[in-house]
């Protein structure tokens, strides 16, 4: 068992399965990178990466192993924000699909094509389109176009990268996936209601990362400022510790966030930690 994980394996799987949130609660677990599991009426996974990621020499690029195998997951819905392998992990998604024949996979158009080529049945795939709401039992999703690193469409007109506003019960969360902050994105976000939970990458970008082919995201400072602007009730930084060569210090986010609003609420969950969000 890895010392990086607060809880993993069967213990974590059982906790997710047996969790029973109250009416005003949403439970979530950090799975690393931008990956989270959520439990309300339904069990929802976003950007899970439950397989190894290796470099050209065959060595792992992960700082820590996956918490459990994808085939062990019990999920009603799986959302992926874009097609990069640390967000749309095809072995993970196909493993979950094989174990959950009734699960539905909500993905941008580019990812839908990837999953079809991997052998997923079309009836299991729901293509998410920026600006078009998706309403399902126990889940509402409003996709927002993301710039990663720019706004792009496929030749068929499908989105390549999305942020997701997700409503479960009366709790609204905003998962940013991977994106730069643009004037258009800021406008799109400010048109929506303030999120209860705000999940945003903090790994930023710089000359050296860009020169090395690493596409960055919002920085820790941008995430802190955006959270205050959106009046999020609780902010959770992400995308800062899983991939070698693409890390950030979450304490930079905390420092700026506290300077901007000393009363603002944030949480930095440990890997596999179950967090109870209670709306008051």
Give an overview in words.
The structure is a single chain. This protein has a seven-stranded mixed sheet with strand order 6-5-4-3-2-1-14, covered by helices on one side. Strands 7-8-9-10-11-12-13 form a seven-stranded mixed sheet. It has a single domain, classed as Metallo-beta-lactamase, Chain A (4-Layer Sandwich), CATH 3.60.15.10. The chain is an alpha/beta fold. Helix 6 packs parallel to helix 7 (250-260). It has helices spanning 9-18, 90-99, 109-118, 183-190, 207-211, 220-230, 250-260, and strands at 25-32, 35-39, 43-46, 77-79, 104-108, 125-128, 134-136, 139-145, 162-168, 171-175, 197-201, 234-238, 265-266, 274-278. The mean pLDDT is 96. Helix 3 (109-118) links the parallel strand 5 and strand 6.
Structure described in brief:
With 280 residues, the protein is an alpha/beta fold. It contains 7 helices and 14 strands.
């Amino acid at each position: 068992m890895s010392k990086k994980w607060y809880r993993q394996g069967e213990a974590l799987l059982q906790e997710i399965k047996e969790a029973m949130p109250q009416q005003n609660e949403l439970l979530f677990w950090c799975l690393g990178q931008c990956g989270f599991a959520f439990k309300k009426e339904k069990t929802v996974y976003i950007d899970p990466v439950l397989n190894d990621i290796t470099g050209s020499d065959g060595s792992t690029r992960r700082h820590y192993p996956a918490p459990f195998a994808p085939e062990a997951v019990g999920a009603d819905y799986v959302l992926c924000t874009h097609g990069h392998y640390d967000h749309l992990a095809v072995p993970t998604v196909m493993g979950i699909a094989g174990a959950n024949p009734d699960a539905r996979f909500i993905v941008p158009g580019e990812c839908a094509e990837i999953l079809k080529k991997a052998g997923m049945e079309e009836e299991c795939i729901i293509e998410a389109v920026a600006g078009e709401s998706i309403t399902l039992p126990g889940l509402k999703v409003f996709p927002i176009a993301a710039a990663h690193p720019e706004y792009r469409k496929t030749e068929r007109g499908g989105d390549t990268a999305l942020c997701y506003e997700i409503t479960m019960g009366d709790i609204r969360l905003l998962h940013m996936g991977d994106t730069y902050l643009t004037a258009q994105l800021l406008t799109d976000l400010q048109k929506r209601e303030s999120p209860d939970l705000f999940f945003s990458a903090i790994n930023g970008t710089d000359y050296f990362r860009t020169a090395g082919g690493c596409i960055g995201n919002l920085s820790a400072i941008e995430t802190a400022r955006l959270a205050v602007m959106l009046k999020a009730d609780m902010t959770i930084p992400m995308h800062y510790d899983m991939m070698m060569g693409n890390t950030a210090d979450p304490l930079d986010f905390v420092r700026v966030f506290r300077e901007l609003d000393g009363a603002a609420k944030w949480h930095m969950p440990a890997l596999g930690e179950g967090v109870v969000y209670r709306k008051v």
